[in-house]
């Protein structure tokens, strides 16, 4: 099929846009996902650091409180034992000894509480402290059983040789544990500082990754926008070219119509006027009859010319009989006029199509067949129109010379594209030099409002 040289026909814009939109959607979605994941990870890391810090400080304070309680109870127990030993009154001594029982239970409870929060580094001094405390309370339990004579006799030696050294040893061990406990707190704070440093590095990496992804997406978006602007400019150029070609075709059609009216119909009417004048001047009946026969022949010829001209503009049978008869008539007329074998295969259901669809299909087939006649030197053209589901498939195939779809494009192809696009359809033209041409159009059967809002895919395939 023929086209005039022009700009290269682009591949379907909708097909080209989908991958770009997919890439942009995935990119922005991935960036947002990274930001959300980074935010969630940061909050989780902050929560872990805060929880670890709170837990470490809580454990330190609980152990410190237990040590302070143990120290206080050791000091208080020494005071009660001293008063017990120095009391001259048995009742008062018994009262002082009675304080030691609850104090011993509180000491053991404090030791057990400290054991539950014990750090590995504190195990050795803690075991030594517990051993000393147990021995200490065993000595005190023995001491409170002394009689008045035993107290008077042993009080000073027991106090200075037994009680004070044991109490001093226990307090020294408690101080060792407190020192280990402080080191544990320092170690926990160091771990918290290390976790905070890791969190900062994680945030820096996340920020760098997000910034890099954002820059890449910005560059992709800019490139995509520039490409869309170029495509829009090309489309505007195509529309301007089409408008120019349409105006030129309109003028050519008007010129051809005027020439047809002047050269054919005008001359026939002038001949009829001349024959009429000749009939008026005829004196013999035979001359009058000859003029009338000539007028009749000229009138019949004029009527046929007007009918052919009207059918070329728009066949009346397209409105009166339907699309299938109009296509068959056009095939017969083309075969009669050119000798080209045009075979039409059409469903009866296509006659129920909307008027716009019938007109589009007729003009598309008409243009494709005329191109095969004028430019392809084809011997056979097969036309197929089928209604399949919610669309109509139109196929025109010839066995002519074909053409290179990359470099040839003209008003006929542009007109077919615009007609199909206006109905929201898809036009595909496949051709190669020496292998004929295939024109395929798929027209959706949708509401007029929906059709007018769609843009069709229309492209040429070499």
TrEMBL record:
It catalyses: ATP + protein L-histidine = ADP + protein N-phospho-L-histidine. PANTHER family: NITRATE/NITRITE SENSOR PROTEIN NARX-RELATED. GO terms for molecular function: 4 iron, 4 sulfur cluster binding; metal ion binding; phosphorelay sensor kinase activity; protein dimerization activity. It is an enzyme of class 2 (transferase). It is found in: Cytoplasm. It comes from Solibacter usitatus (strain Ellin6076). This is Oxygen sensor histidine kinase NreB. Its cofactor is [4Fe-4S] cluster. Its EC number is 2.7.13.3. The keyword 4Fe-4S applies. The lineage of its organism: Bacteria, Pseudomonadati, Acidobacteriota, Terriglobia, Bryobacterales. The keyword Iron applies. Member of the two-component regulatory system NreB/NreC involved in the control of dissimilatory nitrate/nitrite reduction in response to oxygen. NreB functions as a direct oxygen sensor histidine kinase which is autophosphorylated, in the absence of oxygen, probably at the conserved histidine residue, and transfers its phosphate group probably to a conserved aspartate residue of NreC. NreB/NreC activates the expression of the nitrate (narGHJI) and nitrite (nir) reductase operons, as well as the putative nitrate transporter gene narT.
